[in-house]
Amino acid sequence: MHIKPFLLEEFFAKHEFTVKHLLCASDCEPLHLEEVVGFADTETASLWRDLRLSYTDPKGHPLLRAEIARLYKDVTADDVLVLAPEEGIFLTMLATLQTHDKIIVPVLAYQSLYEIAASLGCELLTWLPHENYAEAKWQFDVKYVCDLMEIHHPKMIVLNFPHNPTGALITRTELEQVVRVAAETGTMLFSDEMYRFLEMDTHMRLPSASDLSENAVSLCGLSKSFALPGLRIGWLTSRNAKLLKQIQQLRDYTTICPPAPSEILAIMALRAKGTILERNRSLIAGNKIFASHVFGVGWREPFGGSVAFIRYHGKEGAKIFCDGLLRSKGVLLAPSSVFGFGDSHFRVGLGRSGSKVGFELVADYIQENR
């Protein structure tokens, strides 16, 4: 298995911890330890105080799996496997895909959602978003992807809504159509739901694919919507017990079990989910106002998640613009080249506090270089 370098992660490794104004982060403003511990109730305070740094239940702490299951309609604690988010993608692909399998993937996406399958020798059937200039937003053509399934009968389709990096959403009716056609064509669903619960209009929130189909695996976690990327806690949910067991068996070769401190902190956070999610949606709403004003005609409205994907109209291209902005103002934006998607866009993060200063510096740079 030969896998290509992860362009976005290498980009962040180079810049994230030295740049003055990080304006392309995909997480929300990370919570401090004392904030999370402050959410503790009597039970979790006792668990934290008496914590032993031992190995943990390979599937995840029973109380944590119970809290996770409360985020779903039909998923139970037995349908949950706790692991690192990226690990969930990697192990699911290893457990289900073989050379020459066909898989439908969004190509403007987090690279591991398609690169792992490519490294396994799978045939990628691509599903690209459409940039709707008239309505200044990104859209996914559901009829197109359903036609792909009916023609090719792929092994898997990868979904990602709210979508990273565009913030695009499909409707519930469209998702149900995808689920129905997947069932008819024998296609497994892998649904990356890391940005779920950050929809600006909660009525647009989609049900989890794992609630809609027993042939689905859904990925979620605490890194994005819950502002806790440092815990490295995510989870897979699936009502396919055999598949979940296969993934867990592969996990014996990676991290084996979740970290004990992170699990207890995760329980605290999930029991305070209303407070955390309201805080994060408020941050995003405020930053959207700044960003839409600064980027003007290039702005593309995100309907969920903590990022937006902006069109750059300058002749020099997005990468040169972003490089110049970094040198001149110390502001980091992620050019579309690190997503393997041309040179006409960049990703902006909307979930961090203190971003107003960064947006003002971007506005100054644009004005100075007209």
From TrEMBL:
EC number: 2.6.1.-
SUPFAM superfamilies associated with the record: PLP-dependent transferases
Keyword presence, Transit peptide: no
Domain Aminotransferase class I/classII large: 52-350
Enzyme class label: transferase
Cofactor(s) this protein requires: pyridoxal 5'-phosphate
Molecular-function GO terms, alphabetical: pyridoxal phosphate binding; transaminase activity
Keyword terms of this UniProt record: Aminotransferase, Transferase
InterPro entries documented for this protein: Aminotransferase_I/II_large, NHTrfase_class1_PyrdxlP-BS, PyrdxlP-dep_Trfase, PyrdxlP-dep_Trfase_major, PyrdxlP-dep_Trfase_small
Domain of life: Bacteria
UniProt record similarity statement: Belongs to the class-I pyridoxal-phosphate-dependent aminotransferase family.
Protein name stated in the entry: Aminotransferase
Organism: Candidatus Ryanbacteria bacterium RIFCSPHIGHO2_02_FULL_45_13b
Source organism phylogeny: Bacteria, Candidatus Ryaniibacteriota
